[in-house]
Amino acid sequence: MTTVDVHSHFIPIDFIEVARRGRAMDGVEVRRVDGEERVVHPQGYSYRLDPEFWDLEAKLRQMDRLGIDVAVLSIAPPLFFYWVDPHAATAFCRLANEALARFIRPSGGRLYGLATVPMQSPKAAEEELRYAVLELGLKGAVIGTSVEGIPLEDERFEPFWAAVEELEIPVMLHPYYVAPRPGLSDFYLVNLIGNPLDTSVAAARLIFSGFLDRHPRVRLLLVHGGGFLPYQIGRLDHGFRVRPETQQHIRKAPSVYLDRFYFDTVVHADLPLWFLVELVGFDRVMIGTDLPFDMADVRFLEHLEALGSEDSQKEAIRGRNAFRFFRIPSEDSNPTAI
Questions:
Q1: Per-residue pLDDT tens over the stretch 258-294
Q2: How far apart are the first and last CA of the chain?
Q3: What is the reported pLDDT for 332?
Q4: What is the signed CA dihedral for 57, 58, 64, 66, rounded to 10 degrees?
Q5: 38 CB-contact burial (10 Å; exposed 0-12 / middle 13-18 / buried 19+)
Q6: Rounded to an integer, what distance in angstroms lies between the CA atom of residue 68 and that of residue 265?
Q7: pLDDT of residue 335
Q8: Which positions of the chain have pLDDT values less than 50?
């Protein structure tokens, strides 16, 4: 039974080396704090620079320890860099995607990658996406849940979404934060509450704006179990029934659109994972960890076993759905069936 982790992060070694010597893009530094290396951002937050971000052997050893056979890597979200000069961001995305392709190449088919693109320049994002998928062989893209406050359904991003549909690749939506958020600056709420909140807002906007009707072939992965969206979908449906604001662009209840999303398992507990699978179906949920960040869920197999589902359903969540979603060839999956 193959286990696939669809939510695992990467940092280019070239970027790390520059940050170790001084300041990299956006003034990011790598500093040694209390005996460990940390990535320090000028906006005031930092995180431990574990070797699994950039060292292939360390990454594979960690996967072996946790029982992960295959992982799909995406850049660490603090490195989206949507807030910097578009030309600099475009150059960084090219460096990052080529570094990711080099990183996964010698893994023996255990690692695959998602492209990062400069969303503040939609035309450049489209061009980088094509290069990363067609030339580098990356399996899709990862983007933020908004682009510096601009929602993903905004018409300026149409060139990017048109390329996504043409290339028939999936897109992971991942929250990110740079500036402090009102009410979330204490207790690490910027991540604990802010990240799932951002995913929920982005998904709700894609539903209510009519984006999903306009782009019927776009396949989206919502991390952290879809944020709060699955657990408040009844509220969205009620609002659709009673509030005219919600009916401007859609004619179907929001819950009808749940089957346009896929979800990872990063909810950190048995009961919410059971609810998610019951709500959206076992064929739309995939194992995720969020490694190697400290918010990673390394008990994913325990949570999966606690579902009490049939073995075939658990096998789908554990690996088969991911092979199909990312069109990764395997002996027991059909990568063209979605």
A1: 999 999 999 999 999 999 999 999 999 999 999 999 9
A2: 20
A3: 55
A4: -160
A5: middle
A6: 14
A7: 44
A8: 333-338
Please enumerate in sequence order all residues whose Cβ is within 8 A of that of 127, keeping only pairs 6 or more positions apart, or say none: none
Classify 4-12+52-325 by CATH class.
alpha beta
3-state secondary structure the chain: CCCEEEEEEECCHHHHHHHHHCCCHHHCEEEEECCEEEEECCCCCEEECCHHHCCHHHHHHHHHHHCCCEEEEEECHHHCCCCCCHHHHHHHHHHHHHHHHHHHHHHCCCEEECEECCCCCHHHHHHHHHHHHHHCCCCCEEEECCECCECCCCHHHHHHHHHHHHHCCCEEEECCCCCCCCCCCCCCHHHHCHHHHHHHHHHHHHHHCCHHHHCCCCCEEECHHHCCCHHHHHHHHHHHHHCHHHHCCCCCCHHHHHHHEEEECCCCCHHHHHHHHHHHCHHHEECCCCECCCCCCCCHHHHHHCCCCCHHHHHHHHHHHHHHHCCCCCCCCCCCCC
| pTM across the whole model | 0.95
Spatial contact of 29 and 94, defined as CB atoms under 8 Å apart? no
Question: CB within 8 A of 184, min separation 6: which ones?
Answer: 190, 193, 194
The full set of domain ranges for the chain reads 4-12+52-325
